[in-house]
Amino acid sequence: MSTAITADDLSKFQADLENTPAHDVIQKAVMNNGVLKTAESTDSKVAMDQTFSIELDTGAVANQKQSGRCWMFAALNTMRHGIQKRFKIKDFELSQNYTFFWDKFEKSNYFYENVLKTAGEPIDSRKVAWLMATPQGDGGQWDMLTALIAKYGIVPKSVMPETYSSSKSNELDSVLNLKLRKDAVDFRKLVADGASDDEIQAVRTKKLGEIYRILAYTLGNPPTQFDFEYRDDDKEYHIDRDLTPKTFFAKYIGWDLTAYQSIINGPTADKPYNHLYTVEMLGNVIGGREVRHLNLDIDTFKQLAIKQLEAGESVWFGSDVGQSSDRQIGILDTKIYDKDALFDVDFSMTKAERLDYGESLMTHAMVLTGVDIVDGKPTKWKVENSWGDKVGEKGYFVASDAWFDEFVYQVVINKKYLPADLQLVITNEYDNPTVLKPWDPMGSLASK
Question: Of 155, 144, 149, 157, which is closest to residue 63 (Cα–Cα)?
């Protein structure tokens, strides 16, 4: 049934507007101040003070600047916290540029792999269109970072510092995506012309060499051996010679990366709780760690995060940071803007509905460093962001527990904090998880 808007409809709509109490005052306020400032609640600012019953001392925040490396910064932040405490190095940072280099390189090869796998499909198939929309980008997920570290190790920021293109990545991304789409044309032609595997591999190796050169010019040469030199908080001098990225990780971080499990809260009908999921064509390192998400109900999800914080360990998490948030003051709260009252419109959707209908997905990764427990229940969470110290409380944000329920989608938890039945699910389903479509919202890459 088709329904056109008529002149009578317009007359009724205008009359309804004019009969709305104080419509002219509201209209002037919104026109002059915008939607969010007009709808902003002062009560939220009062409720979201930076006081927490459980709080970790994690030092100064980092700054990803004009890049989409939040997931990388957040993961490296969780790792540097232990280094700062153990070796007494205040505000120490790991090199985000080093992992950025290898992520770009591995993502390029991963793209080639998927282009070749789909070379027999028409160019307008949904999978091919999805691949070509963004051949590679800055975003990622926890498992992708651990795959990089397992293969390439990690280095201090002093050994491979930031460059123009790591801090402001749009030019590099544009060049790489141009190159990768051009390479996709070549690979699809080779397959269509019946080229042998050896011929395709020779072309692939040449193209990867070109990618390496682009990255070396823009991000610098990744170190293979280095000396780690620093003064600790007591002003004592230290030098550790002839380290490699892998020996540095083993000595200064020493985590068993396989012990950490991605936990999601995806309450949609196609993802029953207490099962393991992966996402088709999501990853970066071929042959490396693959994405595995354990889907849990929100109460269990939160209790695991609290348990890890109580043990003194920060928590990597992924969320939709643009929802119900004030970036400048650093508040994430479902009550910060009352748009329903402002427009007299019901905007409410469930978390599952927002995921199913494209209203929300994971966009940004940060670190939980505290939580306020009142009468046995969490009320708000302390968040270490990676947007520098000019926003929030010196870069730290506060999220209400209601916001956590609605807009947090992923946490990374050491499996030792999981009950035995959930550990068994991971063991039993790890090699045979449910495979989600490439465009599933649980496959979104944190990139804000």
Answer: 157
